[in-house]
Design a protein that fits this description.
The structure is a single chain. The chain has 213 residues and is an alpha/beta fold. The protein folds into two domains: 4-53; 65-210, 3-Layer(aba) Sandwich (Rossmann fold), CATH 3.40.50. Helix content is 51%, strand content 14%. It has helices at 9-23, 28-39, 43-52, 56-65, 81-93, 119-135, 151-164, 177-184, 193-196, 205-210, and strands at residues 76-80, 97-99, 105-107, 139-145, 169-174, 187-189, 202-203. Helix 6 (119-135) packs parallel to helix 7.
Amino acid sequence: MSSHNSLNNSLDNAAQDMKYLLDRNYPKSTALNLVVNHYKLNKEQRNFLVRYVFSDDEIRDHKSKLISIKKISGKEVVIDTYNTLITVEAILTGRETVKGMDGFLRDTSAIFSKYRFDKNSKEAVKKILEVLFKYKPKSILFILDSQISKSGELASFIRNELKKFSLGGNAKTSKRADFEIIKLNQITFTSDSAIIERVDKVVDIGMEIISSF
């Protein structure tokens, strides 16, 4: 897992500059473009900064939403499926992840729109359900972006796995997954900052899993 201490100098300086701009209310896209252009960063470094750097206000807000996974017992939970799956897959396959300044673990590959349902997806689903089984939520709703290839097949696989684990819940596709997740506003499994900022309680399953290794 990458950390602030392991950043190379240009990326470290870029992160510091970007945070400085964000703390002075520059829009994130503006701050990002300024530092990427100034330090001549590549696509991977740009992806890293998006997931790593947050303003002090964002850090306080995100941390205030974060709850222990132990608190899901007997509660309804909603899973931001692709965000969660991609992070868990990264952990299981050794792909690079980063713990953001806000404390949330994120995958740095930016593969969302190119995501493929394969054996790694199945292993990640099983790992997520193992963790959920341990903490016994009342029900689990996996919401998948319907525009991603094979979302229907993945939702069907998740429904079957829920039965195998004797967990109550469902998996469904949605054309407006983020909107639906935010509207439900239940305990949400995600590391997507756009969702974190719009719901009340969030679980970071990536950190839960990586800390158990």
